[in-house]
């Protein structure tokens, strides 16, 4: 009896109820989850303008928003989950995108690339983990409870725009990375079809290597961000065996994405046609110019050989579909 009485006394001294919470001497936790939050969903364009007619949307990218209101747990980690599917397909309950962690009354957004003449439906929900506190406003690592709320459907949307093309875009300038400019025998302007005349450059040694390379960066300019698809066509030739690499800058990561790697044989013209992994709009970066409202894509061309050589292109074209007014 003495042993049992002593343990019971210890338990009572450590565990005490505090209002609607319980305390164990080290942490304070709620006994049950609070009232469910209000989750609101909406659509905007890339500039943040609300889309009031989602079935008449005419852009290549749309932004889904979800906000949890009237639900402020200072020790909770919130995530917002989105699921997007084409109309005619069933929701799976598996999120297409999960937002980073936020705290308190949280909101999140998800950018969706929109295919022309395709309808989409979507839903969003809140998932959170609440942690105990120390009674003095500090959050602890001990989990109090976690919960996943029901999916909230968002308004379906469809791009009703008319896409025309393909439109051919040629490079309008280039930036030397590692090359030598040659004399008058190098074609100053690229043609839209192969004509046997090459804009070519001489190689330079690659720093820290015994290799030689010709490398430059070319921007393709666009007057509108409403571009989809995207295929680049290149006709090249080298005076020595070299390995050609074509890459595009991903503006969201700041890194180049390799589109094509192809060995070229000496003095043998080679053509390559490469499709971009995403729609053109994904790669567009606004032109930094107060007088020109344009965007551009940055493509890198490179060929590497074991000895000095000349390398150039007869044709460099980027084809894409462009949005026009709805008919």
Describe the 3D structure.
- This protein is mainly beta.
- It folds into 2 domains: 35-160, Immunoglobulin-like, CATH 2.60.40; 163-324, Jelly Rolls (Sandwich).
- 5% of the residues lie in helices and 53% in strands.
- It is built from 2 helices and 24 strands.
- The protein has helices at 2-14, 280-283, and strands spanning 16-18, 21-23, 28-30, 38-44, 61-69, 76-86, 97-98, 107-113, 119-133, 139-148, 152-158, 162-170, 175-178, 180-181, 199-202, 204-205, 212-222, 227-238, 242-250, 255-264, 270-275, 285-286, 295-305, 310-324.
- Strands 13, 16, 17, 19, 20, 22 and 23 form a 7-stranded antiparallel beta sheet that branches.
- A hairpin with a 5-residue loop joins β9 (119-133) and β10 (139-148).
- The longest helix is centred in the N-terminal third of the chain and has 13 residues, at 2-14.
- The termini are far apart.
- The model is unreliable at 1-25 (pLDDT under 50).
């Amino acid at each position: 009896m003495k042993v049992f009485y002593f343990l019971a006394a210890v338990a009572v001294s450590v565990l005490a109820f505090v209002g609607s919470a319980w305390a164990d001497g080290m942490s304070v936790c709620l006994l049950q989850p609070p009232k469910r939050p209000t989750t609101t969903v909406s659509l905007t364009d890339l500039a943040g303008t609300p889309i009031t007619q989602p079935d008449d949307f005419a852009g290549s990218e749309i932004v889904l928003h979800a906000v949890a209101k009237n639900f402020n747990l200072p020790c909770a980690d919130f995530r917002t989950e989105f699921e997007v599917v084409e109309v005619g397909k069933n929701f799976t309950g598996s999120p297409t995108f999960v937002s980073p962690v936020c705290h308190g009354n949280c909101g999140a957004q998800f950018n969706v690339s929109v295919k022309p003449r395709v309808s989409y439906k979507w839903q969003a929900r809140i998932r959170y983990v609440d942690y105990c506190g120390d009674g003095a406003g500090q959050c602890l690592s001990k989990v109090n409870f976690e919960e996943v709320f029901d999916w909230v459907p968002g308004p379906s949307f469809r791009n009703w725009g008319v896409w025309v093309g393909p439109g051919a875009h040629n490079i309008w300038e280039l930036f030397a990375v590692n090359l030598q400019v040659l004399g008058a025998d190098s074609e100053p302007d690229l043609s839209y079809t192969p004509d046997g005349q090459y804009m070519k450059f001489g190689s330079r040694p690659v720093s820290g290597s015994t290799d030689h390379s010709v490398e430059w960066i070319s921007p393709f300019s666009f007057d509108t961000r409403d571009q989809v698809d995207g295929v680049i066509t290149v006709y090249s030739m080298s005076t020595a065996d070299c390995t050609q690499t074509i890459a595009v800058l991903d503006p969201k990561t700041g890194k180049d994405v390799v589109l094509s790697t192809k060995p070229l044989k000496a003095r043998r013209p080679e053509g390559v046609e490469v499709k971009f992994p995403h729609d053109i709009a994904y790669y567009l970066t606004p032109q930094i110019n107060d007088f020109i409202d344009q965007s551009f894509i940055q493509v890198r061309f490179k060929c590497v050989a074991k000895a000095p050589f000349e390398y150039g292109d007869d044709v460099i074209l980027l084809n894409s579909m462009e949005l026009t007014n709805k008919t």
